[in-house]
Write a structure and sequence with these properties.
Blueprint (H helix, E strand, L loop, with lengths): L16 H10 L16 E5 L2 E4 L4 E4 L2 H4 L8 H11 L13 H13 L4 E7 L2 H18 L7 E5 L8 H5 L19 E3 L8 H14 L3 E6 L3 E2 L5 E2 L3 H13 L2 E5 L23 E4 L11 E6 H8 L16 H15 L2 H17 L8 E7 L2 E6 L5 H9 L3 E2 L6 E4 L7 H18 L3
Parallel strand pairs: 3-15, 5-6, 5-7, 7-10, 10-11
Antiparallel strand pairs: 1-2, 2-3, 4-12, 8-9, 11-12, 13-14, 14-16
Length: 438
């Protein structure tokens, strides 16, 4: 295959057999062996809520590119934000320097966040923002004279990323990270949070926290929705219990809003379902509207000042592409689109249509549950699905989904028209139908 050394990749580059061969021989795709046993579908364009494949097919994107492209593709406001920033600078280090896109975005995020959140530490991916949050928790406790508080309390069924610190607070039993259970730090795991928080479950959390309080630095959870750990929704009352537990024992409360943040659950942040503010909150995914990788760990003044007055009065972390100006500029534009409030009506409309049109799946063989929250639709099977069979069933109806394990689910862009939401739901039902066949 010829390479492109000596010039940029042509803008109108078409897909060729050589590229297919190079993909098989060179590219290691996520959650796949090398070489891959499932050939990926080449994409040559994306616009609105559709992605265009090299073979000419157009698919409605039911995944919003792993939950990030909330405004769809080629959004003119976001496109222009990137072009304008390119005229100034694409990148500059954030150590010892600063720039307007980073400052303006940080100020906006602090204003959008739950009450009490005042400070923003940028990272370059969701997993890294979780690493930063964990480091904040441990360093804060150390600065308060509690150097023995080195563990976190979390819940079964959670997922927080693929780096080692994040994997350690992801449920090790039956998860994609169980391979590493014997080398990860040992944290404290409560039972999965229930759909309805009983007094028995609340007491379970209280007892566990009290038993391990001397070694715990913080509690970390995905608020209301557990994402890649099972796409489960739970009672917001659990968050209120955890807030009280943390206050009682001097623990920090961390909400991982990487998947739930920026409107996905029907609230700007899932914390709002409980009316609870965390001490630290991580955001990513939809932050830039799916344009560039960017994440952040946000915290209260108490956390920031506690760390900054400790024995090591700086947070020893600094990703090379922290606060990349291009990413910050498009994130500022993306959050600006959210501030007009139209997303709330759009997400409510998606929820209504998904609820109505996913209902037929409930009667299909092999379906264990059907659930919807905000712009999230889930059909859970009783047994693991065959990803290729389920994906094909959806693609035959012109929809892109990415099943995993027992889960068939969708998280479409907020701008998805009604007829396309219906198509997405019908494709998910079709995928469930073929997945339930013996």
């Amino acid at each position: 295959m010829s390479d492109f050394a000596g010039g940029p990749i042509p803008g109108a580059l078409s897909w060729t057999p050589d590229l297919s061969a190079a993909d098989r021989e060179t590219v290691w795709h996520p959650y796949a062996p090398m070489p891959s046993v499932v050939e990926p579908f080449p994409v040559v364009g994306a616009d609105g809520v559709r992605i265009r494949l090299a073979d000419g097919r157009e698919l409605v994107d039911g995944m919003a590119s792993w939950w990030s492209a909330i405004h769809g593709y080629r959004n003119p406001v976001l496109d222009q934000a990137v072009r304008d920033q390119l005229d100034t600078m694409a990148h500059v280090m954030f150590g010892g320097l600063t720039h307007a896109p980073g400052v303006l975005l940080a100020r906006r995020l602090a204003a959008m966040a739950p009450e009490g959140i005042e400070h923003v530490f940028f990272a370059d991916s969701g997993s890294v923002s979780v690493e930063v949050a964990i480091k904040m928790c441990l360093q804060y406790q150390r600065s308060q004279g509690h150097s023995g508080r080195t563990r976190l309390l979390t819940v079964r069924g959670g997922y927080h990323g693929d780096t080692f610190g994040a994997m350690a607070v992801t449920d090790p039993a039956g998860s994609m990270h169980q391979l590493w259970a014997d080398v990860l730090p040992g944290h404290v795991f409560a039972d999965r949070p229930p759909a309805v928080c009983t007094e028995e479950y609340a007491d379970h959390l209280r007892r566990l926290a009290a038993e391990h309080a001397d070694t715990l630095a913080a509690v970390i959870v995905e608020p209301v929705v557990q994402g890649a750990g099972g796409m489960l929704f739970y009672d917001p009352e659990v968050l209120r219990v955890l807030r009280a537990v943390c206050d009682e024992h001097g623990l920090l409360l961390v909400f991982d809003e990487i998947a739930t943040g920026f409107g996905r659950t029907g609230e700007l942040f899932a914390a709002a379902h409980a009316g609870v503010s965390p001490d630290i909150m991580t955001v990513g995914k939809a932050l830039t509207g799916g344009y560039l990788t960017l994440a952040a760990a946000l915290c209260t003044a108490r956390v920031a000042h506690g760390i900054s007055s400790g024995e090591a009065p700086v947070l020893m972390h600094g990703p090379t592409f922290m606060a990349n100006p291009l990413a910050c500029a498009v994130a500022y534009a993306s959050t600006g689109l959210l501030l007009d409030g139209a997303w709330r009506e759009n997400v409510a409309g998606i929820a209504k249509l998904l609820t109505e049109h996913l209902e037929p799946a409930r009667e299909l063989p092999g379906v264990a549950d059907v659930r919807v929250l905000g712009a999230i639709g889930v059909v859970e099977m009783a047994e693991p699905t065959d990803m290729r069979t389920a994906t094909k069933a959806a693609m035959d109806l012109g929809v892109w989904i990415r099943p995993f394990g027992k889960l068939l689910y969708v998280m479409p862009p907020y701008i998805t028209p009604e007829e396309d939401v219906v198509r997405i739901a019908e494709a998910l039902v079709a995928a469930a139908r073929v997945s339930g066949r013996p």
